Amino acid sequence: MKPILLHAGNPGPYTGDGNWTYLIPGDRPLLIDAGVGHDVHLDAIGAAVPAGPADVIVTHAHSDHAAGAPAIRARWPSATLSKVPWPGRDGEVAWQPLADNEPVPTGAGPLVILHTPGHSPDHIALWHEDTATVFVGDLLQLGTTVFIPASSGGSLAGYLASLERLRQLSPARAWPAHGPVIEEPLALIEHYLDHRRQREEQVLAALADRLATVAAITDRIYRNLAPALQPMARESVLAHLVKLEGEERARREGPSWVVTP
Ligand SMILES: [Zn+2]
Question: How far apart are CA 87 and CA 97, in angstroms?
């Protein structure tokens, strides 16, 4: 599996250096993730496959992965655009629906769609069994943890289950949408699981100390955080609280959170 790496040309505060998209050449060239429609990206796709991609699969509906689909379709009208549906978020694009475990033929052998919700409800990874390689979208990223937007479709419980599913496959290499290739994905998954366990203990300790609101718990755990980063930190704390609520270990009392005795 030797994909062609094509950068989407979209650095910014939420995307870091910007997004990687992956092109697998063959009879039906496949592009994984659509970028945002910048000319530099479209031109790079055209340089690699002048007739354009036959298929474009996006890992999830977040704009840095999906917003470029209409521009790709405009330049190469025969390209099919596919994703796992996210009703209410998928916009005007006529996406072909993908399903969990669906095989996708490529010039490098089949990929299998793995529905891996958590970062978003529609998130997928694409598994190449022949080489134990996986395209992970926003499931993994070196040097940071993955944001779980609890108020807009994120689920920490779902994310942890998705990490566990990936771990069971023992991937040897992971291609992420952000940052460099991950040569030891199992070590990164372990690190993520440890990190979330520690964070959960911090949230439970804050609740035990009668800190009852997301804001108060966030201030305790993320001391001296720059104001611009506080909304994301609060979403992360909320993601933990919602997970604990689902396990009946915490519950809401009006605007407050309390531990379940
Ligand atoms: Zn995303």
Answer: 11
Does some domain include residue 188?
Answer: no
CA 211 to centroid of ligand 1, rounded, Å: 30
> What CATH number does residue 155 fall under?
3.60.15.10
Residue span of the structural domain in which 230 resides: 194-259
Question: What's the full length of the chain, in residues?
Answer: 261
Kindly state whether residue 225 falls inside one of the protein's structural domains: yes
Total number of domains in the chain: 2
Q: How far apart are CA 153 and CA 199, in angstroms?
A: 20
What DSSP state is assigned to residue 3?
A: P
Calculate how far, in angstroms, residue 224's C-alpha sits from the geometric centre of ligand 1: 26
What's residue 16's pLDDT?
Answer: 80
Domain boundary among 148, 183, 218: 183
Q: From ligand 1's centre to the CA of 89, what distance in Å?
A: 13
Q: What's the gap in Å between 198 CA and the centre of ligand 1? A: 23
> How remote is the C-alpha of 21 from its chain's centroid?
13
Q: What is the CATH number of the domain that holds 235?
A: 1.10.10.10
Strands 173-176 and 133-137, sheet pairing: parallel
Shared domain for 9 and 131, answered yes or no, is yes
Q: Where are the alpha helices (DSSP H) in the chain?
A: 39-48, 63-66, 69-75, 156-168, 185-208, 214-221, 230-246
Which DSSP symbol is given to 2?
A: -
Q: Could you read off the pLDDT of 195-231 as tens digits, one per residue? A: 999 999 999 999 999 999 999 999 999 998 999 889 9
Mean pLDDT of the chain: 96
Q: Which two tokens stand for residue 147?
A: 């944001």
